[in-house]
Amino acid sequence: MEIRIRPYEPGDRDAVVDLALRAWEPAHTALARTLGPSLHRRVHGDWRRSHARDVGEDLDSAEAAAWVAVTDRVAGFVTVRLDRAGGTGLVHLLGVHPDQQGRGTGTALTEFAVERIREEGMAVAVIRTGGDDAHAPARAVYERAGFVAAPVVHYYRSL
């Protein structure tokens, strides 16, 4: 399967938002099991709505650059934000359609984003993901790409 990465175009929006929600659903299902449904709702509200908004904001933002991976359709996407003063580039959002996962799309998008960050003269590339089992495949991709994990733990308590 050939993976082509090209700049995001406004006509890609629906496909990108849809695949992002499909890609991130397992993580929210796992997080709801960890936190419990009530606390998960309190912390994340309607996560589909907020994530759709967040993806749309990155796609529309002058602060972020966006690309899509295309196979026979839009199979994934990545957005990058640069902190020129700090010399860092953040791989802000990355998603791969569930039926395209495990086929190299995430790896291709990660490598592509890192190369764009390097071309912009940044000294450090940053990417963030969850530490739960649902995010294990993403962590494996990032570690293979040379990223080093710095564990962070978030604690939540219902009041």
Please tell me about this protein's structure.
The protein is an alpha+beta fold and 159 residues long. The chain has one domain: 3-Layer(aba) Sandwich (Aminopeptidase), CATH 3.40.630. The chain has 5 helices and 5 strands; from the N terminus they run E-H-H-H-E-E-E-H-E-H. The protein has a 5-stranded mixed sheet, with helices on both faces. The protein is globular and about 45 Å long.
Question: Could you give a quick summary of the protein structure above?
Answer:
This protein has 159 residues and is an alpha+beta fold. It is 43% helix and 21% strand.
Present the secondary structure layout:
Elements: E1 4-7, H1 13-35, H2 37-44, H3 47-60, E2 64-70, E3 74-83, E4 88-96, H4 105-119, E5 124-127, H5 136-144
Helix pairs in contact: 1-2, 1-3
